[in-house]
Write a structure and sequence with these properties.
The complex is a heterodimer of chains A (310) and B (253). Chain A is mainly alpha-helical. Chain A has 13 helices and two strands, in the order ααααββααααααααα. In chain A, β1 and β2 form a beta hairpin. Classes of the chains: A mainly alpha (310), B alpha/beta (253).
């Protein structure tokens, strides 16, 4: 998102005063010139809206999509695509309402799926960061683990269902395993790249201050790699959802994916859509959580004002 | 470690290079180097870019083993980097994910100083380099000159016995550079630390150094004693001007 100042400030001032880290030529106390209100309001960029207006627009976007869905299904539109069998928004909404208020099963499914994904994803985050760091920093690890990781990486995690069934005594553990495997590879690869891309001067600085290996790991490698690792975590949480739902559909006992598939087999289409909406909302919730956490942990990154808020 | 005084009394290190070759294996940049840096002196090193000045400094820091010969501190061989020899880099070497104060606290944390003590100590160092109240800022909020001040504070916070400076003011404008030179002289007083200061600026070398080492053509060309170290007005005196001319002549050939 472009901030108002980007489009209205004269280029000369932007280059010199506002970006001290790009122009390290002055020892003057930092001068963050206040944004000149006058020019800003006069030539306001068309895409700079107040937060309230932006939230309204987002809500409107969802509402229009729902409205279109309602129209297409309520009138059983059949223009090549056939909406006749499709449940309407109101059908889905009333099914959703019934589930939400229907007590036990819905919330039990939700809790099961969330437990599985949180467990699997956290395991993957820890293992992935550890493996990625080892791959980037240790020749032995790169030789021993590198080929294994490269060979296993192309295998879709959901194709591990037979492996999970053979290996684990319970379905529950198998599903967590698949969820973990799905997120493990994006996290590992992102960590490996991020650790390799670190500026060597940081490491040299800490070494000449007397820092040892563990100091390097915790004060340089991990914090420095964090912005890159977060990219892997975001991707990871997304594929984790895909895999936890698929695994539940195939071999689950309870869980949102299991319920959705059950509804399909008994031709409860509104129920299927309730499942899909639930998955969408949960996925959105978890990826937002990763995003918010990431932003808190990387407050030190130089950001242009306005770019930080999405 | 007790850290009540800012400056230590441990005294400077003696750094000795004996028949040293430096550089990458198979591609030495400096050969047959004999140099004795006496405790507490400021030795400036000048030479054209690419002559191996930085390589010399990285070797003394312990980041790069010599290809040949011996490098010793107080008579014992160097084995890797150590907190007693801290390095100030030309580029921005602050850890961007640590606040300004967090960076200055880093060597104290490594040395095992208690949290309260290192915080107070870091604050005093920030006062000393003219950055009072900027402790909680992120490094990217600072100008280039301010960041070099933080680097200086960080390098000196754990009271090293030798300070190795690799063109630390090279990227600064002339006025800031002069301010930083004065600041350096000021903060060094009382530390007793040996200083090796690499620069390509002959005037800087003649202002700061007790002695000036001249490097060129893959070897140490000369080491001269500076007539009036750390005296701005000495620049126009005949003996300083003569030395300056000599050095510039050697560099241009």
């Amino acid at each position: 998102m472009t901030s108002p100042s980007d489009t209205t400030t004269p280029p000369a001032r932007t280059a010199e005063a506002d970006v001290p880290d790009r122009a390290p030529r002055s020892d003057e106390p930092e001068s963050r010139t206040p944004k000149s209100r006058g020019t800003e309001s006069k030539s306001r960029a068309p895409n700079s809206r107040t937060p309230a207006a932006r939230y309204a627009l987002r809500a409107l976007s969802l509402l229009v999509a729902l409205g279109l869905w309602q129209v297409l299904t309520a009138y059983d539109v059949a223009v090549w695509l056939r909406f006749g069998q499709f449940p309407t928004v109101t059908d889905v909404a009333s099914a959703f309402g019934a589930r939400l208020t229907g007590g036990g099963p819905y919330w039990q499914d939700l809790a099961d799926s969330l437990t599985r994904i949180v467990t699997g994803f956290l395991l993957a985050a820890v293992l992935g960061v550890a493996t990625g760091t080892a791959l980037a920093r240790s020749r032995v690890a790169a030789d021993v683990l590198g080929p294994l990781v490269e060979v296993l990486r192309p295998v879709p995690a959901i194709a591990l269902v037979p492996v999970a069934i053979l290996l684990f005594p319970s379905n529950e553990q198998g599903i967590v395993f698949i969820t973990c495997a799905a997120a493990f590879f994006p996290v590992t690869v992102a960590t490996r790249h991020a650790v390799r891309a670190l500026n060597p001067v940081w490491e040299e600085a800490v070494r000449t201050l007397g820092g040892g290996r563990s100091r390097l790991l915790f004060s340089v490698l991990l914090p420095g790699a964090l912005p890159g690792v977060l990219g892997g975590l975001s991707t990871g949480v997304g594929v984790s959802w895909i895999c936890v739902i698929s695994a539940e559909m195939i071999s689950g006992e309870y869980g949102v994916g299991y319920r959705t598939w059950q509804d399909y087999t008994v031709v409860d289409y509104p129920g299927v859509f309730v499942g899909m909406v639930t998955i969408g909302l949960l996925g959105w919730l978890t990826s937002t959580a990763v995003e918010v956490l990431g932003r808190r942990l990387t407050r030190w990154l130089p950001r242009t004002e306005g770019a930080a808020r999405a | 470690m007790t850290s009540t005084p800012l400056s230590g009394t441990a005294g400077g290190l003696r750094l000795t290079l004996d028949g040293v070759s430096l550089g990458r294996p198979g591609a030495p940049v400096l050969t047959g180097l004999d140099l004795d840096v006496t405790p507490g002196e400021i030795l400036t090193v000048v030479g054209p870019s690419g002559c191996g000045k930085s390589t010399l400094l990285r070797t003394l820091a312990g980041l790069l083993p010599p290809l040949d010969g011996s490098v010793t501190q107080d008579g014992t061989r160097l084995h890797g980097p150590g907190a007693e020899r801290s390095l100030v880099f030309q580029e921005d070497a602050l850890l961007p994910w640590r606040t300004v104060r967090g960076n200055v606290e880093l060597p104290l944390a490594i040395a095992g100083t208690s949290r309260a003590e290192r915080r107070a100590h870091a604050e005093r160092w920030l006062d000393r380099v003219g950055l009072t109240g900027r402790g909680t800022a992120w490094p990217h909020r600072l100008s280039g000159g301010q960041r070099q001040r933080v680097q200086l504070a960080r390098a000196l916070a754990a009271r090293p016995r030798a300070l190795l400076m690799d063109e630390p003011f090279g990227a600064l404008d002339a006025r800031t550079r002069a301010q930083m030179q004065d600041l350096l002289v000021d903060v060094l007083t009382g530390t007793g630390a040996t200083v090796l200061f690499v620069t390509h600026d002959v005037d800087e070398a003649l202002f700061l150094g007790d002695r000036v080492a001249l490097i060129g053509a893959g070897r140490l060309l000369d080491v001269s004693t500076v007539p009036h170290p750390r005296d701005r007005s000495a620049r126009t005196r005949p003996e300083t001007a003569a030395l300056r001319r000599d050095i510039l002549d050697s560099l241009s050939t």
